[in-house]
Amino acid sequence: MARLSIEGLCKGWDFPVIDDLSFEVEEGEFFVVVGPSGIGKTTLLRLIAGLETADRGIVRLGDKDITRLPPYHRRVAMTFESYALYPHLTVFENIASPLRARKVDRATIETRVKSVTKLLRIDHLLERKPGEVSGGQKQRTALGRTLVADPEAFLLDEPISHLDAKIRHELRMQFHTLEDLRRVATVYVTHDYAEALSLGDRIGVMGNGGGLVQVGTARELFERPKALFVAEHLGQPTINVIPANLQEEAGQLYAHADGAAFRLPLTDEQRRRLNGAASRRIVIGLRPQHVRPRDEQQGQALEMDAQVDIFEALGSNGIMITQAGGIQLTALTDPERHFDPGEQVLLGIETDALHLFDAESGISLLEDD
Amino acid sequence: MARVTLNSVNKIYGHGSKAVHAVQNLDLAIEDGEFVALLGPSGCGKTSTLRMIVGLESVTSGSILFDSTDVTHLEPQQRNVAMAFETYALYPNFTIEENLAFPLEVRGVPAAERRRRAQQVAELLRITPILKEKPPGLSGGQQQRVSLGRALIREPAVFILDEVMSHLDAHLKFQMLFDLKRLHRDLKRTMIYVTHDQVEALALADRIAVMSNAKLQQVGDRATLYNRPANAFVADFIGEPPTNFFKARPQQENGSLTLAVEESQLTFTLTEEAEARLGNADAAHYTVGLRPQNLTLKPAGGALQAKVAINEYLGERSILTLENGAARFRALVPPGTRSAQNDAITLHYDPARVMVFDAKTEELLV
Predict the structure, then answer these.
(1) Is A135 on the interface with B (CB under 8 A)?
(2) Which chain B residue lies closest to A199 (C-alpha atoms)?
(3) A99 with A144: CB under 8 angstroms?
């Protein structure tokens, strides 16, 4: 068992894909890397697995530098987005394959495969071939093959993204409860922020620069994003992004939207954190969950008249796009309500939950580093 | 514009012992200007149904009407229906404007008119700024919009969308949902949307037709499917996270009929109306359904005691996975909920939200 550390990793082809990327995953930690598709997440896993060669940087497992080791000497196991099962082998043989390759004796193979498949609830499918089982079962077979390998680190590449919602819930549950996964260092890659928030002990958000924009727990990332990129990537509907500037009036500091009447008074705490950064170009980030019809809220909120542009009842929330103070503002509502386009509604804005970012750099002005 | 009626439509592929009954006795009426979603898991028969409406697939028996015209045996091009697909299938060497206007060009519409209509459709879909560009440089969302525009430009009576969002990223999908809704509001055209994704179907459609195993299970608006599902399949398929189901047996408790969940200490109290109905039914077992959304931390009539197995923080909300004996269920709670693993917790529910299904037929009883 060992900690996995990535130090200053670089990889590029025509342009840098991974650029000076570093993070550490403790033994037993479940670390999730989340980011938009095409940003280099799979490349990162392939570098750790040894399927690609790093241009620079070090991959360490425990005390050992494994950067130049071939994949089969690394003691890491990886599952692929495409499952990559052998179509002509049974589920049993697919899962047993890494053990067979290591010349493990027959009785041990039998015991290991049986215990893993029972855990994954595919023990009734052992004699079937991949073509005869469902997508979720294929995914569990691929996962089983990774688990039996008894590695020192697990690398999981979008293992549940292509499955339907119900199976995703079930497999997410299994990732939470599989002790094999919770014993070693695991790196899990996904583009789905909900999956990341659900599963990660810590989460790294990968950005366009080829590095991690922010690393933290789910709550830290969602509630205290250090960059606009993080705030925009996590959450649905997407956070309201409002270009604005800071203005002082009668001793009160406001974030005032560009070219519109919309403005939000800042709290003393926000003012203190801004630390004198007056009258600069900023971006307000306001999560839809902090803008609700006033009659659904308890506690303090800034009241604002708005007009409903469009309303959707979507799963556990109603989503309302409104015009408020000359800007477009997305709000959440109770899903059982109904609002018509053109309807007037009194919104409550929880201003103490807003985020402020520098307009140029996108760096948070409230979350000190 | 047209009203679309399907009368006892059947589709059987193959013959004899290899015959597959893909659509069974489907009756469905889609009103003029209505937005209807055809929803179901893969293999349920929704794509066969759609292909029969378009005319790409023959009808084994039954009939399809557009208004009062029987189109059952008409060729696709005689039906005045247009379809947009999951794959965009744009011509890479044509500009967006040329791609949009192509169906009109094929029909010999003069160039000036083509340009005018392309402009109009582009405005509707908000792609005016990219009219002179070519498809390869565009995002998935933009390409999908062009593909929709190309189907729309013919001004068909019926507009069919086949899984048009399934491979868009979550954020793009979201934007697209609102755009499609706006589009329908502006065009007021009969639209049929085929998808396996219940969130899309519920968000977009006036009514949703749920299919499973070649049969129509239920047609209704969001509230009906959500609160009064015809059977356990619909209750399970609609809603996210999925509905919690419990095996339970009826028992008398202080003069009231309650439902005791097997292999756990959970008991469901019922409304008086439900008690009266089940009192007459006299079954030994029922399947109880309760949505994760309908379990709250605030007192509300009925209560369930449980131990927290997992607390998943998801930003806008948290999902608690709870256990009591062998029963496992989920509750949707505010994101501020700090309950940790093994904490004892009480969840509350409104007895009117408890759904009771026949244990065998799985049909909704109360």
Answers:
(1) no
(2) B312
(3) no
Express each pLDDT in A124-155 by its tens digit.
999 999 988 887 788 889 988 988 888 899 99
How far, rounded to the nearest angstrom, does the alpha carbon of residue A43 sit from its chain's CA centroid?
17
Give me B161's structure tokens.
């969308």
Residue numbers in B near A237 (CB within 8 A):
174
**Residue with token string 């590449």:** A157
pLDDT beyond 70 at B1: no
pLDDT string in tens for chain A (369-residue length): 689 999 999 999 888 899 999 999 999 999 999 998 888 999 999 999 999 999 999 999 999 999 999 998 898 999 887 788 999 999 999 999 989 988 899 999 999 999 889 888 889 999 999 988 887 788 889 988 988 888 899 999 988 877 777 778 888 888 888 887 778 999 999 989 999 999 999 999 999 889 999 999 999 999 999 999 999 999 988 999 999 999 889 989 999 999 999 999 999 999 988 876 655 789 999 999 999 999 998 888 999 999 999 888 877 789 999 999 999 999 999 988 999 999 999 999 999 999 999 999 999 999 865
Record: contact B313-A218, CB cut-off 8 A = yes
Strand order in the sheet with B4-13: B20-30, B4-13, B61-66, B69-70
Closest to A291 (Cα-Cα) out of A232, A347, A336? A347
Nearest by Cα to A289 from B68, B116, B318: B318
Distance from CA of B292 to the nearest CA of A (A): 9
Report CA A299 to chain centroid distance, whole Å. 30
The gap from C-alpha A81 to its chain's centroid, in whole angstroms, comes to: 16
Which residues in chain B have their CB less than 8 angstroms from residue A222's CB?
Answer: 313, 315, 335
Residues B139 and B125: their CA atoms lie apart, in Å, by 14
Encoded tokens for A12: 């590029």
Q: What mean pLDDT comes out for the span B174-191? A: 85
User: Given an 8 Å threshold on Cβ–Cβ distance, is A177 in contact with B171?
Assistant: no
C-alpha dihedral over A171, A172, A176, A182, to 10 degrees?
Answer: 70
CB contact under 8 A, B312 and A315: no
Are B240 and A310 in contact (CB < 8 Å)? no
Half-sphere exposure of B193 (CA within 13 A, CB side): 29
Chain A, chain B: beta-carbon pairs less than 8 Å apart:
84
CB B288 within 8 A of CB B356: yes
Determine whether B347 is exposed, middle or buried from the number of CB atoms within 10 Å of its CB (0-12, 13-18, 19+). buried
User: What is this structure's pTM?
Assistant: 0.86
Q: How far is A354 from chain B (nearest CA, A)?
A: 14
pLDDT digits (tens, 9 = 90+) for B18-62: 889 999 999 999 999 999 999 998 889 999 999 999 999 999 999
DSSP H helices in A149-245:
165-177, 193-199, 218-223, 228-233
Kindly provide the b/e burial profile for residues B158-190, where b requires at least 16 CB atoms within 10 angstroms of the residue's own CB.
Answer: bbbbbbbbeebbebbbbbbbbbbbbbbeebebb
What part of A 259-318 touches B (C-beta under 8 Å)? 287-289, 310, 312-317
B282-301 as b/e: b if 16+ CB within 10 A? eeeebbbbbbbbbbeeeebe
Q: Measure the CA–CA gap between B234 and B225, rounded to whole angstroms.
A: 7
Amino acid code (one letter) for A295: D
Question: Smallest Cα–Cα separation from B20: which of B2, B39, B43, B3?
Answer: B43
Length of chain B: 366
Whether the complex's predicted ipTM is more than 0.90 is answered with no
For residues A263 and A355, the answer to whether their CB atoms sit within 8 Å is no
Q: What is the mean pLDDT of chain B?
A: 92
Name chain A contacts of B242, Cβ cutoff 8 Å: 165-166, 169
**β-strand A16-25 against A4-12: which pairing, if any?**
antiparallel
